[in-house]
Automatic annotation (TrEMBL), chains A, B:
<feature type="domain" description="PurM-like N-terminal">
    <location>
        <begin position="38"/>
        <end position="150"/>
    </location>
</feature>
<protein>
    <submittedName>
        <fullName>Hydrogenase expression/formation protein HypE</fullName>
    </submittedName>
</protein>
<dbReference type="Pfam" id="PF00586">
    <property type="entry name" value="AIRS"/>
</dbReference>
<dbReference type="GO" id="GO:0051604">
    <property type="term" value="P:protein maturation"/>
</dbReference>
<feature type="domain" description="PurM-like C-terminal">
    <location>
        <begin position="162"/>
        <end position="309"/>
    </location>
</feature>
<dbReference type="InterPro" id="IPR036676">
    <property type="entry name" value="PurM-like_C_sf"/>
</dbReference>
<dbReference type="InterPro" id="IPR036921">
    <property type="entry name" value="PurM-like_N_sf"/>
</dbReference>
<comment type="similarity">
    <text>Belongs to the HypE family.</text>
</comment>
<dbReference type="InterPro" id="IPR011854">
    <property type="entry name" value="HypE"/>
</dbReference>
<dbReference type="InterPro" id="IPR016188">
    <property type="entry name" value="PurM-like_N"/>
</dbReference>
<dbReference type="InterPro" id="IPR010918">
    <property type="entry name" value="PurM-like_C_dom"/>
</dbReference>
<dbReference type="Pfam" id="PF02769">
    <property type="entry name" value="AIRS_C"/>
</dbReference>
Amino acid sequence: MEYETIQLAHGSGGRLSAELVSRLFLPRFGNETLNRLEDQAVVDFSQGRLALTTDSFVVDPLFFPGGDIGDLAINGTVNDVCMSGATPLYLAAAFIIEEGLPLSILHRVLLSMENAVKGAGVQIVTGDTKVVNRGCCDKLFITTTGVGRVPEGVNISAAKLEAGDKVILSGTIADHGMAILTSREGLSFASRVQSDTAPLNGLVAEMLRVSPLIHAMRDPTRGGLATTLNEFAASSRVGIMLEEAAVPVRPEVRGACEVLGIDPMYVANEGKLVAVVPAQVADKIVAAMRSHPLGREAVIIGEVVADKQGLVVMRTTLGAQRIVDMPVGEQLPRIC
Amino acid sequence: MEYETIQLAHGSGGRLSAELVSRLFLPRFGNETLNRLEDQAVVDFSQGRLALTTDSFVVDPLFFPGGDIGDLAINGTVNDVCMSGATPLYLAAAFIIEEGLPLSILHRVLLSMENAVKGAGVQIVTGDTKVVNRGCCDKLFITTTGVGRVPEGVNISAAKLEAGDKVILSGTIADHGMAILTSREGLSFASRVQSDTAPLNGLVAEMLRVSPLIHAMRDPTRGGLATTLNEFAASSRVGIMLEEAAVPVRPEVRGACEVLGIDPMYVANEGKLVAVVPAQVADKIVAAMRSHPLGREAVIIGEVVADKQGLVVMRTTLGAQRIVDMPVGEQLPRIC
């Protein structure tokens, strides 16, 4: 490359833009579709239903224990696609880059995206790069959009919870958010806290293989498990009763939450899912999840109830009940 | 709304995020799919090929003569989809918003997006909002992703140019870029220069109706007509010979270009297309374009030649020939 930092001309659509794409992007993500370098990707798509999702990633810092903005941007969008039960197939990636960003940083992020793309078994088929003047964005933002195919017979929606359904969590909560926060605050005692960023499409495929009867499913990112379950309860006009003792939290994460006065129920996850399923298939689905590396700690954490409409209620380890409300303020900006 | 400016909590995924979506976004863009507020949209998609495109819009200023970041973000992505010959159907929109942005500004942008969505006959089916701290982005960035269906028998690609093909331009060049630049520079003599932002899917449908035999088609945005034609020539390993006198430029735009020492061939357009078609259908396609409001000034500006491989050459009004090269530097950052 001619320069060692990003120049405004790298976003001009001219020769330096072309060099950025051919030297940095294509060696990582090249495939028959992307290599055509058209302004849009044209891909085969068989009959049926298409799942579409988009997310902007603005995480600060760019690199954190357990991951970086690159794998987060891939895994986050893969996860949003597969939470509908869809098989993620194609991704689009749009970069907003601050002038002066060292190319070595961009390169490291792209390597990480490359690994994540391979890990999830998807393809980036189109993209965009914009460069803004120094001070007009903070280093690097990545917006990824995902397209997937929804299998026949699968109809997953936050509005489909029914009384008696079981609530399944795939593993420990609050890892990602606490990894960002403790790395930002430089808390050395919390150095073992790692982000859980991971692609969940393999786990979802296992779950659907044993039963397509999943009612609702979501990855509890911003706002954490509390927010996702509140959205489920509101959409389906039911109550959700949780057992606090059943919700797994790693000791080091619980410790960091206690020191900082943060409730792990509201902290972002990036490699976990919560599913609401009919009681009769719950154990079978949990067993299937536990056979997958990303679901080894899968557990039933509660159930759907007909009363307490719109509320999420937690039975605490002391036997009391407390309402787990929607968060009002921002706990952790730029967590993803 | 509880606040008059954007708070970090508007990006938290909590109650204020929900309010932002329900009070500002859904009233503008609501449809059966978006209203479900899932993390991904699931839409019908019939058998065939899917066109996918993504673009981040970082234009500065947000509002400019003839448009704003809102209609630009819709029209730009609609245009990238339809340049493949596809019918644009679904859009995803991701917002990165600076803390403290007046809600009135966001509201104005959303109204403009609403009009653009209706004008193009598409739907926004999913989206995302992130809020970053003051100073971490410049007011508002919007990334839009578009999905369309490619009709059978249509195969448009920059690699399909053949010697003898005609190059058709849909109208005047350099309007958008010069509108941004003159408004940024506060050049009062250029106050009549207006952006050409417009959705081109209707025009493309007209063109395909008379002939599906379009070889290549693109909207010459960043880098202008010169860059697009250079990409065509390189992809297809042919030469392109242009007639300078045939390329339409509005007098006020030409005047502004001359004062600022800018070549209109390199200036961005946001409502124009260039198509390369077999000679035998060229006149029929031009006639069809002229019957559409966005193609009234459509004109043949040149042809594809077998020699001069990879080069774009212009016969000037004085009879000389000059090479129209790819731009190297950034002429106008944040033009879109």
